[in-house]
Amino acid sequence: MLVLLPPSETKAPGGDGPPLDLAALGFAELNPTRQKVADALVDLAADVPASLAALGLSQRQDEEVERNAGLWSAPTLPALRRYTGVLYDALDVPAFGRAQLARAQRRLAVCSALFGVVRATDPIPAYRLSGGSKVPALGPLGSLWRPALEPALARVNGLVLDLRSGPYAALARIPDAVTVRVVSEGEDGRRLTVSHHNKAYKGRLASALATAPREPSTVAGLVRMATRLGFAVERTGEHELELLADA
Predict the structure, then answer these.
(1) Between the chain's N and C termini, which has fewer beta carbons within 10 Å?
(2) Domain assignment of residue 18, given as a range
(3) Which segment of the chain is annotated as a signal peptide (predicted)?
């Protein structure tokens, strides 16, 4: 099973790993596109106003442009330590035991506008690039990534649980992946999509499934496992699940 996470806008600073080496990353077939995006991002960083505009940043965020400028020389961290924020707080990797961490490192991957997708242990630098950004030299990132990323993800063996947010789901379609809609149920029984706590619930679900001693191979098995782990999950389509937030 592969649990595909969205990235985060915020990244942990610094690192203790060597500078970025694309050969050290998983999904090696993505490296030509990774090289193209990384080089374009570094070139763009030479023009700070243009970078701020393309990345949707304010003038007070020019340190993010500095990060992009040093993309090839900055220290790295494993992807699961690099990404931060609500979902990753809920994932709570520091709380994993040794066996749990080993399982999570095999099962978790992160979608990325810069790298396409990275494995949990892939060493990456801090950077700023969102799925909806338009780097002038590249155009829409979806058009760039789809020809490379869709075949790469199609070759993944086993069940794929797709927890990506909209801009990152647009980078590659995964027809047979299982998606999750986090919902709340009103007094009238109607279910509404949860927005505020959506990331936290998905982070907790990902954590539980990634560290479980066994992994499912079917959608029905995934529902049974999530239920045993304490989640209120219902199958609403062939590859669609609903996670009841307030159960």
Answers:
(1) C
(2) 2-244
(3) none
